[in-house]
Write a structure and sequence with these properties.
- The chain has 11 helices and 23 strands.
- By secondary structure, it is an alpha/beta fold.
- It starts with a helix and ends with a helix.
Length: 469
């Protein structure tokens, strides 16, 4: 009987998926490496709430290890490291391989934009002796989560004549910040009976920015607004008209924090998708002399459909690969067709508090490693690329052979909702692609949560993908 049990146990081990390996399979040394890696990630996250800042950080980090700006007329050899910035809001970093792109490139693509509150083109107004900004929210967010929290103003203003001014107000410890006000519970009896989507509308996201009038004896109107404009003019040299040529947004002003008594997780703004962007960036920085040219591409506009000339639907990356292919004497479309890609994007980690929103067997879990999402989309697999069995097998084998913790995951229950990534736009270029990223709790909230070991496993996944011979 005992022999029979051992046969059954052996067969079960061979044929069934079994329990996920998870963090229990990692050594103390590996966990320590994860913690150390995440210190750099936290610095990146704090420094890069918006895409322009993420690009600046990436350029500085790349230049420190020898990356130079790409010149399409130059000749590059194996091991050379180049980068190319697209309009300050997206960046491609390439490490030239032994084979160049003759047999295709290896692509890791993440996005560096996150849900936030953008200013309208004509934002500043005064009402009842308060100065406020009118806003237009960016990406999929729950509006009520953005009320009554401290906000920081970030962005760029281009003045008449072309001078560019970068603005960051509210990040410093003792610096003033801004907020969206909320209705007190005593007066919210009607508000709380409304559906969540109607209790707080987009036009209610008005940001409080001042309350003191300009110091004058004149009986002019809108003196609080004038005082705000005077402060902005004194510090940045801008006028109200300059808002018309500006990209300004409000993001949470709190910094990243370790989460839990064991400090095993990181809470912060913008994990989606900088938690994949940073590991992909570091993989490009660390890889040396790969077989195929490796490209990390950090793109913009994913949260609003990847449109625009800095989004994934732009031809920027396609043209970059074409230029690399031209140097190698091959047609660009042939190089792309032989390329493979990890769409570096997050998935929703199973949350036991909201278990009914998930299908447990096909969800990703904190501390179980990177999550492979064969498809995303919604309903009947609409708006997704759905990776092939062959490519899934290749990536799965790569992760197993290199002892990278991984898991599969869908984005919640079928028909409940859904989401999208840039994978479908890469697939449209005839590239094999699958989503691989970090599971996230409270995704799209102003304060998201990830596991440190999962972040490190994302780095290891991208590195072995680049380094594989």
């Amino acid at each position: 009987m005992s022999e029979e049990k051992s046969k059954t146990a052996l067969l079960k081990e061979q044929l069934t998926m079994g329990e996920p390996k998870g963090i229990k399979s990692l050594s103390a040394e590996e966990i320590q490496k994860a913690d150390e890696f995440c210190e750099g990630y936290k610095t990146f996250l704090n420094a890069s709430p918006v895409e322009r800042e993420a690009v600046k950080y990436s350029v500085a980090a790349a230049q420190k290890v020898g990356f130079v700006e790409y010149d399409p007329n130059a000749q590059y050899k194996c091991g050379d490291k180049v980068y190319l910035v697209n309009r300050g809001k997206a960046i491609a970093l390439a490490v030239i391989g032994k084979d160049g792109v003759k047999n295709g490139a290896r692509l890791a693509i993440a996005h560096i934009d996150s849900p936030r509150i953008d200013l309208k083109p004509n934002p500043l107004y005064e009402a009842n002796n308060l100065a406020l900004f009118k806003t237009h929210y960016y990406g999929g967010l729950k509006k009520y989560q953005w009320t009554a929290i401290p906000l920081t103003l970030h962005g760029t203003v281009v003045k008449l004549g072309g001078e560019t001014v970068d603005i960051c107000w509210g990040d410093e410890e003792n610096e003033s910040c801004f907020c969206v006000t909320d209705l007190l519970p005593h007066l919210a009896q009607e508000q709380v009976t409304k559906p969540m989507s109607k209790a707080f509308t987009g036009e209610d996201l008005n940001v409080l920015v001042g309350s003191r009038p300009f110091d004058t004896e004149d009986k002019e109107s809108e003196l609080v607004k004038l005082n705000v404009l005077k402060i902005l003019n004194d510090k940045y040299g801008i006028t109200e008209n300059d808002f018309l040529s500006a990209e300004l947004c409000l993001v949470p002003s709190f910094k990243t924090k370790d989460i839990g008594f064991d400090s095993s997780m990181i809470g912060g703004y913008g994990h989606d998708d900088k938690v994949c962007a940073y590991p992909a960036l570091m993989a490009a920085i660390d890889v040396e002399n790969p077989q195929q040219t490796c490209v990390t591409y950090l793109t913009d506009k994913e949260e609003i459909g990847s449109d625009g000339n800095t989004g994934m639907q732009s031809d920027f990356l396609r043209y970059f690969i074409y230029d690399l292919a031209k140097q190698d004497g091959v047609e660009g479309y042939r190089a792309l067709s032989k390329s493979i890609c990890l769409s570096a994007d997050v998935n929703a980690a199973f949350d036991p508090t909201y278990a009914s929103a998930y299908e447990a067997k096909n969800s990703s879990y904190i501390n179980n490693g990177v999550v492979i999402s064969k498809y995303t989309g919604h309903g009947g697999k609409y708006d997704t690329s759905d990776a092939s069995a062959e490519f899934m097998g290749k990536i799965r084998t790569m992760l197993e052979n290199n002892k990278v913790l991984w898991q599969i995951g869908e984005l919640g229950r079928v028909d409940l909702g859904g989401g999208g990534t840039i994978a479908k736009y890469v697939a449209n270029m005839n590239v094999d692609v699958v989503d691989l990223g970090v599971p996230v709790l409270s995704m799209h909230a102003p304060f998201e949560i990830v596991s440190k070991t999962d972040v490190y496993m994302a780095y290891r996944a991208f590195f072995v993908f680049f380094d594989e011979k």
